[in-house]
Design brief:
alpha/beta; TIM Barrel; 9 helices; 34% helix; globular; binds iron/sulfur cluster; iron
Length: 260
Amino acid sequence: MDQGLVFNIQRYSVHDGGGIRTLIFLKGCPLRCPWCSNPESRKKVEPTTWKKNGKTEQIGAWRSIDELLDEVLKDEIFYRTSGGGVTLSGGEVLMQSEFASAFLQELKKLGIHTAIETTGCFSVTRIKRLTPYVDQVLFDLKIMDRSEAKKVIGVDSETVRENFEYLLTQEQIQVIPRIPLIPEYTTNEKNIQQLIDFLTARKIGEVHLLPFHQYGSSKYDYLGREYRMKDVQTLTRTEIDTIKAKFERAGIRANIDGLE
Ligand code: SF4
């Protein structure tokens, strides 16, 4: 598998891993989070189209490993001076796990720091393909109740737990749980407590909290899809701080947006 379907490349990012990074967004995601800010990435690993400002545009292009290496090596100096590197995002990276593994392997040969973002929603076999070549995993934890997770986002939270547990056994990998703070879905008291219990039982000392935003809303119009979160208010700073304090009282450092 020497080609991957990529729907975006973002250079000079200071989110999603340490230092200055290039983010490569791989297309395809089996989940259906109502708050998704990259709805163009969802569903199958195949190009799609949207209509933006009256023009039809293709989303997703097949890119070879060599093409992507040329792209990311333009910023190698920034990775080295800032402690950055390359992050594979999505969509869900595990949808293209063979390609991701081959690409990450090449990055490691070049000594570049590698990170992936994942929801851990497939059998552990897929993540095992990547782990020899990954330095850091930004692992999304969303809804902990099994039936609620299945109903709202279409993921079996048992599978998510298994992937998370497996990653914790890989001592060479830094695992950072990331929790999207989504009103009505992830921020209710029960879910926050379940998250805290899950993390403290595994002696996790740090999480990143990602407050809900509306940045992806116009993409739903381009795609002709309904955006169910359009009337949902973003959280106030006080509400965010209240949630942060709950994690910190349990001994878990909570970093807002991964930037504090
Ligand atoms: S896992 Fe990420 S890309 Fe997939 S639907 Fe949820 S928010 Fe969107």
